[in-house]
UniProtKB/TrEMBL annotation:
InterPro entries: GcvP (IPR003437), GDC-P_C (IPR049316), GDC-P_N (IPR049315), GDC_P (IPR020581), PyrdxlP-dep_Trfase (IPR015424), PyrdxlP-dep_Trfase_major (IPR015421), PyrdxlP-dep_Trfase_small (IPR015422). The lineage of its organism: Bacteria, Bacillati, Actinomycetota, Actinomycetes, Mycobacteriales. It comes from Corynebacterium breve. This is glycine dehydrogenase (aminomethyl-transferring). Signal peptide: none annotated. Its EC number is 1.4.4.2.
Length: 949
C-alpha cells in the first residue's frame, strides 16, 4: 500500500537519482551530511507515531470529530452561527485555485483574489461609514489591539487608553495586555460618566456590547475628540445593516469580525477581522490595503497599495508586525455579501433581530427580567442564582448559551435559528408560552429610533448582480481563472514554502464535527478537538526539541510576538527589568524587527558577513556594548540567505553568556524538520509557520498559524487563555499573556497539519526535508552559469532555497529582477521572492513537492529569459524595445491588429514550445505601481471603468 509521502514528494526514484547526480552526491543522506554543519547533527530524533495512509488518517479524523458534541451555538461573545452557502464552500474554501494562492505581491497574476478583497474592503467601508478599509486582520481581539496602537502612534502625547467594559472579555484581555506591553495605561470602565484627564490617546467603544445592549457611541466620541484623543468603535457588521454607521457618528476607527458572514465557527478561527479608518490616518493603518491603479494599456488593475508602509519594509518603524492576514476568509465573507446582496443581508439581520425580539418578549411575558431593552441579536436574561443550571439544562438539550455571570444568561441568535430552536431555548427557562415571530415587526423591543440606519449600504453593482447560484458560481470561476496559484504551477517563493497542501487534511476542516463548534464550548463537549490539538502540540514538541508548544498564535507574526513577550516577561519575573534590547541580524525578515518593537524591545542590528552569515565580530561588539540590556537575539535558521550557518551554536552560546535568550525563527523549518531541532542547538523559543512547513495553505495571504515552542523555563510564559473571568486584571508577573481571541487560535485549520504529520511520520518528514534541500541545490546547480547563487554554505551547498544574483546582469543590460518576475508570468510561473533579503536578487524555494519536469520547466524559463537578456547585452536589442521591458502580455494584447513592438507576437506569448499545450495569460499588463499610490482608490470602481475601446 502506498504511503502519503509517495504522493507528497514530487520526484520519483529515477528523478531523484538524476537530480542527485547533477548535484554530485550519491544519496540524500550524503547530501544532507555535506550541507549541515556538524553542530546540528548531535540532537535527538523526533519520536513520532508510524505514518497512516490517507484513508486511515481520514478515518481517525472522523472518529475525533465524532468525539465532539456539536451544541447549536447561541453563545455569542463575538462568534455567531451562520450558513456558508454551498456554492461558496465548494467554490472557494474547498477549491485549490483559491486556497493555494500566494499573497498578491505580483498583482498581474492576482487580479481575481484582489478583486474579491476589494469587494471586502468596499463592503466594510459602506457598512462602517468610513472611507478606507484594509483587506482583513487576524481576529477581533488583536484588531482592537492594533487600533489601540494606531491611536497611540497618532496621538503621541497621550499615555492612557480607555476600554469600554462592554467589550467582549477576550477582546479586553488581548487589547489590554498589548497596550500595557507598549507602556500604555489601561482603564477598563463603564462609559456612562464624563471622561477625565487630558493624557488620553483614545477610547474603544462596543456597539453593541457583549451582553447585546445597544448604546449610542456618539457622546463618547465627541467627548474624546474634545480631549484630543481618537475613538475606536467595535461593530458587528450584520448589525450595521440595521444600525446607524459609526462613521456617521464621528468614529475615527471601526473594527470587528466578519465571521458571521458565512464563515464557520471553526472552534475559534480562522476568521477575517476588519479595520476601517478616516482618510487622515490611512497611511498608518495596519494590514494590507488593496487599491486600484492601471496597467500599461490604461486598463484599471488592482494591486496592494502603499506597500512601503508594510512591516517587512519598515522593520522597526513598522505600524504593525502583521504579515499573514486572513485573505481566504475575507474572500469568503465578501462572496457571502455579494451572493446575498444588500436586501438579502438586511433580511438575515431582520430575521436575527425578530427571533431575539420574540425571545425577549416571551421572557418578559413570563415575568422574567430582560436586562437591556435595546439589543440586536443577544438577550441577557436575569435569573438570580440559576444561570449555570439553565446553561446545563440547555446543553443537555443540545444548545449552547452563555452564563454571563451567576445571575444572568445570554442568548445570541444567528442566521440558522428556527421556531423549534426558540421553543427549546425558552423551555430551558421553564417557559412554554412562545411569542410568535412576526416577519417585519420587532414586537415590544424595537431598535432605538435614533440609531436606525437610514442610508442603504452596498450599492455597488457587484453586490446587486450575482444572486443566483449560477451567477455566483460563474463569478467565482471568472475571478479564479484570472489568478496563478499552486493548482496551475510551481510557486518558487523563497522563505514561503509553497508546497502541496494535502487534500486529505483539507477536506476535514469543513466537516460539521470540527467546523460547527463554538470556541467557548465547555471542555466536556470538545474531547475530539482537544485530543487533536494535544497531538499536534506533542508532535511539534518532538520535531522542535522544545518542552512545550502553544498553538494560540494565529499567524507567524503573532508567534514572533508571543515568543518575545514570553522572553520579556521571563526577564521581568527574574528582576531583569532593564533587559530591553533585541539583537536582530541585518538579513532577518522584517517581521522580526516589527515584532520586537511591539514587544517594547529596542532593536539593535547585527551586521552580516560577506558569506551571508552573522558577523561574529560585530556580534561580540554589540554584546560588549549592550550585554546587560540584551533580552534576546532573533535568528532565522537556516538563514534568510538560504544557508546553514556553521556558527549558530556559537552565537547562541555568546548570547546566553550575557544572560540573553535565543529566539530561532522557524520560517525556514522546511529545511530542518526531522533532521535537526532548534531546541537542541541553542534555541530557547521558536515560532513555526504551519502555513509553510506543515502544509496549511496560504489562501492568498492567510490563514496562517504560528505556534511557539519554548524551553522548560519559559513554559509559564506561554500565551494564556483570553476568555478569563476577569479580563481587565493585569497579568501577574511570572505568567503569560494572550495574543489571540481564543485559547487555541485558528484551531479550524489544525486538522491539516495533524494530517500531514500523521501521514508522514518521522521518516516521511525527513524525506520531505531532504527533497526540499535537493530541489534547491538542483536549481542552483542548473542555473549557476546563468544566474549565480549569491550565498552558499558548507561544501558550496544551499539549504532549502537559493538566492539568484542578477545585479551584474542589471548593470550590463538594464534588466532588473522585477523585469524577470514580470517576464516569468508569460511562461506561466509565479515569480520567486523579489529583492529580499538582498536588493537586485531573486530567492527561489522549489520545495519537495515539485517533480523533475516542473523544476526543468522553471530552469528552461529562466534560461530563456537569460538569453533574452544576452540579446540586450550584445547590442542586438535595446532594453527599451525588448520583450522583457513590456512583459507580461495579455491574450488581447497579442491578438490585437495594432501590434506595435519590434519583436514578434510568438516571442512575447509563446517563448518556449511547451506553452502551446496550455497557456496561462495574465488578465492585465504590467501595472503602474506609482500611479496607484499617487491616486489612492481603495473601493470598487464603477463598471464603466473597464470599458475597452
Amino acid at each position: 500500500m502506498s504511503q502519503f509521502i509517495d504522493r507528497h514528494l514530487g520526484p520519483n526514484t529515477p528523478e531523484r537519482e538524476e537530480m542527485l547526480a547533477r548535484v554530485g552526491y550519491p544519496s540524500l543522506d550524503a547530501l544532507i551530511d555535506a550541507a549541515l554543519p556538524p553542530s546540528l547533527k548531535d540532537g535527538a530524533l523526533p519520536q513520532l507515531p508510524a505514518p497512516l495512509t490517507e484513508t486511515e488518517a481520514q478515518n481517525r479524523l472522523r472518529s475525533l470529530a465524532e468525539k465532539n458534541t456539536v451544541l447549536k451555538a447561541f453563545y455569542g461573545q463575538g462568534y455567531s452561527s451562520t450558513i456558508t452557502p454551498p456554492v461558496i464552500r465548494r467554490g472557494v474554501v474547498e477549491d485549490a485555485g483559491w486556497y493555494t494562492a500566494y499573497t498578491p505581491y505580483q498583482p498581474e497574476i492576482s487580479q481575481g483574489r484582489l478583486e474579491a478583497l476589494l469587494n471586502f474592503q468596499t463592503m466594510v467601508q459602506e457598512l462602517t461609514g468610513l472611507p478606507i478599509s484594509n483587506a482583513s486582520l487576524l481576529d477581533e481581539a488583536s484588531a482592537v489591539a492594533e487600533a489601540v496602537g494606531l491611536m497611540s502612534r497618532t496621538v503621541k502625547k497621550g499615555r492612557r487608553v480607555i476600554l469600554d467594559q462592554r467589550l467582549h472579555p477576550q477582546v479586553i484581555a488581548v487589547a489590554a495586555e498589548r497596550a500595557r506591553a507598549i507602556d500604555l495605561e489601561v482603564e477598563v470602565t463603564a462609559l456612562d460618566s464624563p471622561l477625565v484627564g487630558e493624557d488620553l490617546v483614545g477610547v474603544v467603544i462596543a456597539y453593541p456590547g457583549t451582553e447585546g445592549d445597544i448604546v449610542t457611541p456618539e457622546p463618547i466620541i465627541q467627548a474624546i475628540h474634545d480631549r484630543g484623543g481618537l475613538a475606536t468603535v467595535t461593530a458587528d457588521p450584520l448589525a450595521l445593516m440595521l444600525l446607524k454607521s459609526p462613521g456617521e457618528m464621528g468614529a475615527d476607527i471601526v473594527v470587528g469580525n466578519t465571521q458571521r458572514f458565512g464563515v464557520p465557527l471553526f472552534y475559534g478561527g480562522p476568521h477575517a477581522a476588519y479595520m476601517a479608518v478616516t482618510d487622515k490616518i490611512k497611511r498608518q493603518m495596519p494590514g494590507r490595503l488593496v487599491g486600484v491603479s492601471k496597467d500599461l494599456e490604461g486598463t484599471p488593475a488592482y494591486r496592494l497599495a502603499l506597500q512601503t508602509r508594510e512591516q517587512h519594509i519598515r522593520r522597526e518603524r513598522a505600524t504593525s508586525n502583521i504579515c499573514t492576514a486572513q485573505a481566504l476568509l475575507a474572500v469568503t465573507a465578501s462572496f457571502y455579501a455579494v451572493y446575498h446582496g444588500p436586501e438579502g443581508l438586511k433580511q438575515i439581520a431582520l430575521k436575527v433581530r425578530e427571533y431575539a425580539g420574540a425571545f425577549a418578549s416571551s421572557i418578559s411575558n413570563a415575568g422574567l427580567q430582560v436586562r437591556h431593552k435595546d439589543f440586536f441579536d443577544t438577550v441577557a436574561v436575569e435569573v438570580p442564582g440559576r444561570a449555570q443550571g439553565i446553561v446545563d439544562t440547555l446543553a443537555d438539550s443540545g444548545y449552547l448559551v452563555r452564563a454571563i455571570d451567576a445571575d444572568t444568561v445570554g442568548v445570541s441568535f444567528g442566521e440558522d435559528t428556527t421556531d423549534e430552536d426558540l421553543t427549546v431555548l425558552l423551555s430551558g427557562f421553564g417557559i412554554t408560552e412562545v411569542t410568535k415571530v412576526t416577519e417585519g415587526t420587532e414586537g415590544t423591543y424595537p431598535l432605538p429610533a435614533d440609531l436606525v440606519r437610514e442610508d442603504a449600504p452596498l450599492t455597488h453593482e457587484v453586490f446587486n448582480t450575482y444572486h443566483s447560484e449560477t451567477q455566483l458560481m460563474r463569478y467565482i470561476r471568472m475571478l479564479g481563472d484570472k489568478d496563478l496559484a499552486l493548482d496551475r504551477t510551481m510557486i518558487p517563493l523563497g522563505s514561503c514554502t509553497m508546497k502541496l497542501n494535502p487534500t486529505a487534511g483539507m477536506e476535514a476542516i469543513t466537516w460539521p464535527g470540527f467546523a460547527n463548534v463554538h470556541p467557548f464550548t465547555p471542555d466536556a463537549y470538545t474531547e475530539g478537538w482537544r485530543e487533536l490539538i494535544g497531538e499536534v502540540e506533542t508532535w511539534l514538541e518532538e520535531v522542535t526539541g522544545y518542552a512545550k508548544v502553544s498553538v494560540q498564535p494565529n499567524a507567524g507574526s503573532q508567534g514572533e510576538l508571543a515568543g518575545l513577550l514570553a522572553i520579556r516577561r521571563f526577564h521581568v519575573a527574574n528582576g531583569d527589568n532593564d533587559r530591553d534590547i533585541c539583537l536582530i541580524p541585518a538579513s532577518a525578515h522584517g517581521t522580526n524587527a516589527a515584532s520586537a518593537t511591539l514587544a517594547n524591545l529596542r532593536v539593535v542590528v547585527v551586521m552580516t558577513a560577506d558569506d551571508g552569515s552573522i558577523d561574529i565580530d560585530d556580534l561580540d561588539a554589540k554584546l560588549e556594548e549592550h550585554g546587560q540590556h540584551v533580552a534576546a537575539i532573533m535568528i532565522t535558521y537556516p538563514s534568510t540567505h538560504g544557508v546553514f550557518e556553521d556558527t549558530v551554536t556559537t552565537v547562541a552560546d555568546k548570547v546566553h553568556a550575557v544572560g540573553g535568550q535565543v529566539y530561532i525563527d522557524g520560517a525556514n523549518m522546511n529545511a530542518l524538520t526531522a533532521i535537526a531541532r532548534p531546541g537542541d542547538f541553542g534555541g530557547d523559543v521558536s515560532h513555526l509557520n504551519l502555513h509553510k512547513t506543515f502544509t496549511i495553505p496560504h489562501g492568498g495571504g492567510g490563514p496562517g498559524v504560528g505556534p511557539i515552542g519554548v524551553a522548560e523555563h519559559l513554559i509559564p510564559f506561554l500565551p494564556s487563555d483570553p476568555n478569563m473571568s476577569n479580563p481587565a486584571a493585569e497579568a501577574e508577573v511570572g505568567t503569560g499573556v494572550p495574543v489571540a481571541a481564543t485559547k487555541y487560535g485558528s484551531a479550524g485549520v489544525l486538522p491539516i497539519s495533524w494530517s500531514y504529520i500523521a501521514m508522514t511520520g518521522y521518516e516521511g518528514l525527513k524525506q520531505a526535508t531532504q527533497h526540499a534541500i535537493l530541489a534547491a541545490n538542483y536549481v542552483a546547480q542548473e542555473l549557476k552559469d546563468d544566474f549565480p547563487t549569491l550565498y552558499t554554505g558548507e561544501n558550496n551547498l544551499v539549504g532549502h532555497e537559493c538566492i539568484l544574483d542578477l545585479r551584474e546582469l542589471t548593470d550590463k543590460s538594464g534588466v532588473t529582477a522585477a523585469d524577470v518576475c514580470k517576464r516569468l508570468m508569460d511562461f506561466g510561473f509565479h515569480a520567486p521572492t523579489l529583492a529580499f533579503p538582498v536588493a537586485g536578487t531573486l530567492m527561489v524555494e522549489p520545495t519537495e513537492s515539485e517533480d523533475l519536469a516542473e523544476l526543468d520547466r522553471f530552469v528552461e524559463a529562466m534560461k530563456t529569459i537569460r538569453a533574452e537578456i544576452q540579446e540586450i547585452i550584445d547590442g542586438l536589442v535595446d532594453y527599451e524595445n525588448s520583450v522583457i521591458r513590456f512583459a507580461p502580455y495579455t491574450a488581447l494584447s497579442v491578438a490585437r491588429n495594432d501590434w506595435e513592438y519590434e519583436f514578434d507576437r510568438e516571442k512575447a506569448a509563446y517563448p518556449v514550445a511547451g506553452l502551446r499545450r496550455g497557456k496561462y495569460f495574465p488578465p492585465v499588463r504590467r501595472i503602474d505601481e506609482a500611479f496607484g499610490d499617487r491616486n489612492l482608490a481603495c473601493a470598487c470602481p464603477p463598471p464603466s471603468a473597464f470599458d475597452i475601446s
